Amino acid sequence: MNTRESENNLQGSAPTPMMVQYHEIKAVNPDCLLFYRMGDFYEMFFDDAVTAATALDITLTKRGRHQGKDIPMCGVPVHAADGYLQTLIRKGFKVAVCEQTENPTEAKKRGAKAVVHREVTRLVTRGTITEDALLDARQANNLLAIARARSSGTNNFAIAWSDISTGSLFSMELGDLAPTFEIERLEPREIILPENLKHSLNEVANRSGAIIAPLSALKFDSVAGLRQLKHVFNVTSLDGFGEFSKSEIGALGALIGYIEITQCGKLPVMRPPVRIQNGRYMLIDQATRSNLELVRTLSGEIDGSLLFNIDRTLTGTGARALARRLRSPSTDVDEIGRWLDALTHFANDQRLRTNTRDVLKTIPDMLRPLSRLSLTRGGPRDLGALKLGLRGALKLAAILSSDHTLARPPQEIVQAICRLRTAPAALLEELELKLTDDLPLHARDGGFIRTGWHPDLDEIRKLRNDTHKVISGLQSRYQEDTGIKPLKIKHNNVLGYFIEIPSTHATALTGEESRKRFIHRQTLANQMRFTTSKLSDLEIRIAEATAKTASIEEAILSELTGKIITFSAQIGEVSDAIAAIDVASSLAELAICERYCRPQVDDTLAFSIKEGRHPVVEQALTKAHPGTFVSNDCLLADEKTTDRGLLWLLTGPNMAGKSTFMRQNALIAILAQMGSYVPATTAHIGIIDHLFSRVGAADDLAGGRSTFMVEMVETAAILNQSGPRSFVILDEIGRGTATYDGLAIAWATLEHLHQINQCRTLFATHFHELTALGDTLAHTVNMTMRVSEHLGEVVFLHDVAPGAADRSYGVQVARLAGLPDMVIERASAVLQLLENKEKTANISAISEQLPLFSSPRLHIRDPQAESEVEKRLASLAPDELTPKEALQLIYELRELNQL
After folding, report:
1. Which helix (H) or strand (E) holds 156?
2. Is 467 buried (19+), middle (13-18) or exposed (0-12) by CB count in 10 A?
3. Which among 685, 665, 725 is positioned nearest to 602, based on CA atoms?
4. What confidence tens digit (pLDDT) does each residue in 631-640 have?
5. CATH of segment(s) 311-424+567-593
6. How far apart are CA 29 and CA 27, in angstroms?
7. Helix (H), strand (E), coil (C) string for 233-298
8. What is the CATH topology of the domain spanning 455-546?
9. What superfamily would CATH give domain 137-278?
């Protein structure tokens, strides 16, 4: 059916056969919105319709009655379904797509009132999307499974995750550690877990933006999981993939089972599971990721994040690989070294870098088209993407293997070349031979098989084309026979081919003699439509030719898909190589353009940055004012003092750059351990296993936590979890409570970090009393943000120097923020009196000395107003002054300046 099914199926109070079918299918999928295919629309009924109409902002209608009540109904066109699906999935809904699995013509053979067979062909959830229209090409779409086994009263957690749009599959044993850090690192779109874990992990899932799909604990059974994994990968043992724990196998089995359920018995091409060793990545909690704005800004935008500013990749696979590295900086010195060697190889050879990136621009994603093809949801353009990708891979291999490079390729490049060379050349040749250059989106559109390759297809196409010529000739003949020049032979999906004439010529075809030849079909306001037996015969021939053409092309598509799937392992290897080359060459491009240096990364506790810069702030400033960013050193330990880290106690006014300085050093460490050059002159960084950040103020009112409580919770996590290999940045600890409470907390925190945690730390504070600890704590160094003050105005130099600040310049910052002059004057007066009193002075006594409306008004010059000195200088004519007058002028100016 090309339009919605007859409304007669929905009429009446008794359940119609179609409604019976609908309820049967809905009963099997009660937690999903049911997209029920009716011709050219997906319809929704009852509560689904009410919910979807609100979520999609579409019209809710009523069709027929059920149990004495109107049936709510809404629908979306099939051709536009992806856009509506995207909205529903983003809002957390699951959708069951119910397709017509039978042609309406075949259904009618069973009886006039027979219902077309339908069945759910897939469940669409956040973690099981494969369509390009629903995915971000530059971001992974992870589906995560969490399993827990209990042994001797202790928990043993494991996770498994996959992006089914690429077929990746990973697992990790976590032991007794809850999977919080991994959820925050992977940012899955959907989390599968046993029902008894839903409550404990609900909060962290919400923070990461994931939806939870709780399953029965039986789905995580390791015995059933092992059996399923062996079947999927056609092996008798998983030993060839690694040594997986029972909890890992349980997580992997649940993950594969859930994918199979949502794809209604089908599985995309899945790559063998890769076991990730726990501790391989730098641990970064969600608060730190958010504070440092690694992949999104605090407002949730990608633009302005670190990832946005360093991403120069040219392929979707490369972009996802870069994001994966940034989310998971390595703690493996050898691995980081290999990545840096590959980057250096491209940075040192501009010609190689340029040629490589020119080829990368032509390479589309191959893994996602491969996944769609394996699920029988692919089309001709997916075949075309694989063709272009394989062609580009062989070009890359040739470029990287050429002799013009400055040095022998490092290990990472050599491995990439080997993987690129596994590209199946025979498959590429067949795709290029059979596919046209201009491919349609859908197979049903036809015309994607090249002419001259398939004789039967060419013959049918010729017949179809010749038939069209016959129709054109037939139109001319009918025009001549009837004398009606405006006569046209047209086609639509309802009538098929028909003859159309203006109503003014109706008598020429409606006479008794003409009716024997021209059969009336339809009368419109200004036209009349007819057919003839010859035209009907031609229509049948064209339909048969079109059907045969579609059948042959679909058969060829299926054949090519089967061959492609047999090469899925090689295609996966090639795609990995392309991603690695893209990341290395793009980071090299970044390093050259932004003047980054190669860091030295080793197993020491060193942290020595020379002229470090903030990678995001610097780029933002450069666009407006090139060269204005002030670089700073940071020495928390070097090769001579690597027994433990130093603690820098950083003081200085607000707006002076303390937060920028602390964040830039954390970002430099992350960049170094993800295998990138860093914004500095030199950098020596000992491996950091855990990065902590407590910067800024934020509350969690929905969770019942105030700003200060959030601050204390995050501080507690740092003190309880950090160690000698950690790197900590802390800003304004204790400022959320009373002065002395806050000072006491900050004091104790600083001492604990110094004595117990012994981690490399940047500790910023406005409690100037803490600077005294620089004399008593051996590994604490006082540093300050330098400022310059002139005529009551403060100039921030953004320069870090040894020493301690004696004031915070808060009033000056308040003036810059635009507080009213009266407030500024009042604050200055109060501050002056407070600073002259003992710190234990009674506030009420001070208030009596400084009443609000009788206090002396301090003279604060308006920065925009012209001073007396400036007025006097403006009135001078220097060339007319005698030496004596010039000397007298100096005395006058001095007196004016003292007023």
Report:
1. strand 154-162
2. middle
3. 685
4. 999 999 866 6
5. 1.10.1420.10
6. 5
7. HCCCCCCCCCCCCHHHHHHHHHHHHHHHHHCCCCCCCCCCCEECCCCCECEECHHHHHHHCCCCCC
8. MutS, DNA mismatch repair protein; Chain A, domain 3 (1.10.1420)
9. MutS, connector domain (3.30.420.110)
Mean pLDDT of the chain: 87
- Topology of domain 595-810, per CATH? Rossmann fold (3.40.50)
Token digits for 689? 């296993």
Cα–Cα distance between 477 and 793 in angstroms, integer?
A: 94
Q: What are 644-701's pLDDT values in tens digits?
A: 678 999 998 877 888 999 999 999 999 999 999 999 999 999 999 999 998 765 545 5
pLDDT the model gives residue 735: 73
Residue 795, both tokens: 């100039």
Q: Read off the pTM.
A: 0.84
CA dist 768 and 777 (Å) reads 16
Q: In terms of C-beta density within 10 A (0-12 exposed, 13-18 middle, 19 or more buried), how is residue 699 classed? A: middle
Q: Of 58, 62, 118, nearest to 84 (Cα)?
A: 58
Q: Where are the beta strands (DSSP E) in 719-779?
A: 726-731, 760-764
Q: What is the domain partition of the chain in residue ranges? A: 7-124, 137-278, 311-424+567-593, 455-546, 595-810, 868-898
Residue with tokens 């007196």: 895
Which CATH topology does 7-124 take? MutS, DNA mismatch repair protein, domain I (3.40.1170)
A 10 A CB-CB count for 482 gives 17
> With contact defined as beta carbons under 8 Å apart, do 895 and 867 qualify?
no
Q: What distance in Å separates the CA atoms of residue 570 and residue 672, rounded to the nearest whole number?
A: 31
Give 73's strand partners: 45, 61
Q: What is the pLDDT of residues 842-854, one digit of tens each?
A: 555 555 555 554 4
Q: pLDDT-based confidence at 259, cuts 50/70/90?
A: very high
3 state DSSP class of 702: helix
Q: CA-to-CA distance for 131 and 137, rounded, in angstroms?
A: 10
SS3 616: helix
Residue 119 token pair: 């069945």
